[in-house]
Amino acid sequence: MILYEVLRLYPPGIGFVRQTYKEMEIGGVKYPAGVMIELPLLFIHHDPDIWGSDVNEFKPERFAEGISRASNDHGAFFPFGWGPRICMGQNFALLEAKMALCMILQRFEFELAPSYTHAPHIVLMLPVPYASAFLSPHRATGERPAREEALPPPLLMLMMLGAASQWILAAAAAAAVAALLWLAVSTLEWAWWTPRRLERALRAQGIRGNRYRLFTGDVPENVRLNREARKKPLPLGCHDIIPRVLPMFSKAVEEHGKPSFTWFGPTPRVMISDPESIREVMSNKFGHYGKPKPTRLGKLLASGVVSYEGEKWAKHRRILNPAFHHEKIKRMLPVFSNCCTEMVTRWENSMSIEGMSEVDVWPEFQNLTGDVISKTAFGSSYEEGRRIFQLQAEFLPTKNNRRLREIEREVSKLLRGIIGKRERAIKNGETSNGDLLGLLVESNMRESNGKAELGMTTDEIIEECKLFYFAGMETTSVLLTWTLIVLSMHPEWQERAREEVLHHFGRTTPDYDSLSRLKIVTMILYEVLRLYPPVVFLTRRTYKEMELGGIKYPAEVTLMLPILFIHHDPDIWGKDAGEFNPGRFADGISNATKYQTSFFPFGWGPRICIGQNFALLEAKMAICTILQRFSFELSPSYIHAPFTVITLHPQHGAQIKLKKI
Ligand code: HEM
Q1: Is 609 labelled as part of a ligand binding site?
Q2: Which among 240, 279, 560, 620 has the fewest CB atoms less than 10 Å away?
Q3: Is 0.80 topped by the overall pTM?
């Protein structure tokens, strides 16, 4: 209470400043971009309308029932800031202050020295210029301390430093002990106190879950269960893939029900299982649900817009959006079609005299989507783009740190070269070739309009290109692979799709308008995305206590939005949830179930996948080109074994027997 009351009356930081990056309405007032907004902590902490008429009195008891009851506005006390950028060190600071105060109180009584002048002023923080006090040993004789003990601390420090070098050694030793103490306390805080506090808060809300294990949480158990699950393939035609793909979460739901929590290291991960709550989280209207901090692997693979928050995300998304507009993607169709034709021609050339062949379509589709994204992203700089793709493909299995850094450097160098060339061409009046990079550079120049801070830096454009690469190649090849596997398992739907394709295009190259009108093929792709979503779950993080579906989640909890579980839930999709039935999408996505967020393979809300139209058009082009030329079935060597390596892969490949038609 005392520390809180001191922090209220004498907050070390007396205010915060934020700047508007675009026009913003706050409390009914519109602030243009570029305005500095002062958040006057000191004024708010001293406001009698908030704290009462005794606002300027030192009354620690006002905090007797905690911070939230101390004033008539629970947001009125924020000496450590507030929201996502709240001081990371607040627990550290409070603990340190308590420790210091306790040790002083144990040993001394104290009062102000006559020389003390009460004159708080600002030099970054709120210092006390001459903070001398008379310290006397606790319950001691009342002897006055020596004069230098009452000197201002900086002077005292200088005198001490000058006096003897052993003081320096002593100070260094003390600093080392303090650093060790700090390390120990923050490790304990991170690995034990915080997880235990969060666990208690979740259990108090009636949410059940796994017991916390120090440091590792459920990670070793997850590895063990995955290893076990991966030993057992599924029967052909079985789409009940959850226990194999996400065995730990599946077990948690069995044992604890929904919602329940597991541990990703010291962070609890609560699985949210009702579509309404999922919609609320994904809408993220006020920025209350953020993305968890990216892992090291995530950062190395690609950061870019997918990992940003707040204004930075909004700026990047605004610049990227035009590149993914329908009209722009329509212009990329010839690239899609050429790449698909190249692939099927290769397949045709490898056929036996009887017109049969066996192909593992998984690497084939990775190649196809890699080719498509290289050409659509980099246009004339395709060769350099292709090299980047090869380097990134090498990246994932590489564990050698030196090699990883080399790859990073080479990818950045290649991208920097391509971007520089493109920027110079556009400045010389050449229009972009309609490729993603050109559109991005153009949109960036338009958006920044000469003001660098409104646009993206070259490094940021590089990150976005790496992201296109990863996001554009990986996910779409997964969708195509499962589509071929599932259509091999369900030949009646393969036949219906082929009829539709031949009806629209015969043997000619599919055009944009007819591709957009395909009904059966679209229903099939949706049903494959439902049963085999390339991204099996998403995560978000609470920045502060949030109420969701009647449950209060404390800050720092990870919410898991389990696409795979929701897509397979019989309470949402009916008894036939585990069956392949594209007919459920006959009247569109919105009529397939009664909830908006029961189908979200591309995410939802403001952060919905920017490339979904791109991916669906590419997938339709590929499926049509294949259906026009081949019938196909599973090879006897195919083993049905979906598992996740970031996205949903076929563990033993996707061997398909093709027959020329
Ligand atoms: C079948 C194919 C695809 C699937 C299933 C898919 C899935 C997703 C999902 C689930 C998200 C949301 C992530 C979240 O909210 O945390 C997302 C975001 C994103 N996707 Fe895709 N994606 C696909 C294809 C693509 C393609 C082809 C591109 C680009 C060429 C792309 C670029 C992106 C980007 C940039 C974001 C981040 C958007 C943001 O945070 O504002 N995706 N994708």
Answers
A1: yes
A2: 240
A3: no
